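If you are new to this repository, start here. Below is one unmodified record pulled from the training split, so you can see the exact layout before writing a loader.
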Amino acid sequence: MKPIKVGLLGIGTVGSGTFNVLQRNQEEITRRAGRGIEIAMVADLNVERARELTGGKCEVVNDANLVINNPDIDIVIELIGGYGIARELVLKAIANGKHVVTANKALLAVHGTEIFKAAQDKGVMVAFEAAVAGGIPIIKSLREGLTANRIQWIAGIINGTTNFILSEMRDKGLDFATVLKEAQRLGYAEADPTFDIEGVDAAHKVTLLASIAFGIPVQFDKAHVEGITKLQATDISYAEQLGYRIKLLGIAKRNGSGIELRVHPTLIPAKRLIANVEGAMNAVLVQGDAVGATLYYGKGAGAEPTASAVIADLVDITRLATADPGHRVPHLAFQPDAMSDTPILPMAEVTTSYYLRMNVADQPGVLADVTRILADHSISIDAMLQKEPAEGESRTDIIILTHQTQEKNVEAAIAKIEGLPTVMGTITKIRLEELS
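And here is the target side for that same chain:
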């Protein structure tokens, strides 16, 4: 049987990794796929570099449209990134009857509903395992391995840059700005790290996971997104003293009235496995009603880990290319006509626990005032840490961990507490998840 012909758009870090792994493991991949898979064309603006990387083993062009319009190309791999030209090229490839493999989480989080519908109408597949958590097969696990389960929640460390920064802040007691510079020097953070440190990258990924887990349309615009730029080493240290670690989590959770879709720094009990994921590694914890909790851990980025996911998608498409489109695994796990309109909840209606740190006057009655306000807003205290004031100081920190309550209750209570004459400045609020 003749091999599947693949066109590669962009041969940067992941593209070159894909080309190299496919060449190196060609025999093994062919045995698994049932026929050969070969990259026949590469489109890249830097033609000379692309030719050097491919060693003359395929045609190299500087115009992606030449790949998309080539009738001999069966599958297009999109590794350009971004929302603009990538969307145009993916939709053109689909219109031309070509299957698509992409690692572009931003594209799918924003335009996924449009792209998946176009693919469904045309009877082609869009595969995106590499878009979330690099080499960890979390998409396939949710779409297929856990298909018997009603997924209850997902919590993931799905951005290696922020996890590296938080690990270093905890281990070395350094502030955010210092560790960010070190992450950039080591290549863990981009020159412009905004998407990573502000939580946008993680929000793209958890949006896709939520759609697959709960059978809802892709709705990135409704996700609550907070990054780690305002985290202080002080809070990481206090959390540690209370038996918690702070991670940037992407969370998707069923609530009685809707779906919680949020990214933010989160306290996690130090005894949880996911709390001990360090450095640039990724991990995703999934709770299903039948299977319980399952944890997926590995490298979330890098040339060959991500290439592993890209090639797995190529193999899946190769196996299913001749199958009846109606009997393939749906893009978002649920049949398109069975998608749910369950709403994404506004953050005010999210229920979780909280870490509150406030700087207060060291005098009688302060704690009583604070606890009274919390009680007035139906917030009960789980644990508390009161620091001794430094010598010569008249102020100190109080740290409170609350039981579960709605966000709107906490916001209202904070506003009242900050109005007390004995409370200095703003209160630090970090959400807490037991993940049990």
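Two things worth knowing about this chain: The chain has a mean pLDDT of 95. DSSP finds 15 helices and 17 strands in the chain.
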